[in-house]
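Most newcomers find our protein records easier to grasp once they have seen one. The structure tokens are whole numbers drawn from a learned vocabulary of backbone shapes. The record below serves as our worked example for the rest of this section.
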Amino acid sequence: MTVFAGGLDSKVLVLNKMYTALRVVNGRRAFTLLAKEVAEVISVEAGTYVAYDFSSWAEASDYQRAHECDVHDWVTTTRLIIAVPKIIRLLGYDRFPREQVKLNRRNIYARDGNQCQYCGRHFSTRELTLDHVIPRVQEGTNSWANLVCSCVSCNAKKGGRTPTQAHMKLIRTPIKPKRNPAIALRLGSPKYQSWKTFLDEAYWTVELE
């Protein structure tokens, strides 16, 4: 059996007191909230919600380590080995999330699936740039409809021109997503399937920290 360390960078879904998804934080932040007793772990087990405080979650981790080791990320300390929760709930916070998907580089890369919108090839984030469909020199704006992923080669080829002027074609029309694209990517992993219970169509706008 292998116990995985480095779980402090794992992603944890945060709910408000009303079980509404608010944001996604890393494991380090989640454990801080649990240690301060302002949050509890929510585990989806056999279709029901089971709540744990920090102590009872540490005890439950012993069973999970023996029987479900591979479905959890882990943090090892000098005193214990504990599973990183996938979902926590803030005990005294009943506000609702802002219904906006942030316009930022990460969400545009996620929306476009790390695919150059001109040549159609996939690249790592380090090999991608953002391109203004209508260039800024032609009064193009920073907007969902005007920003796309582009590889360095296609971006250089297009230069300060529109796709039409550069004789290039977008593989799809850029639009503002109705749901947070980075969260949608994580839901493709079996590890985060329990998030689906709380991420209905009304609240696909949780922010990533």
Residues 42 and 185 are 22 Å apart (CA to CA). The first strand starts at residue 11 and ends at 15. Residues 1-5, 201-206 have pLDDT under 50 and may be disordered. Residues 54-67 form the longest helix (14 residues).
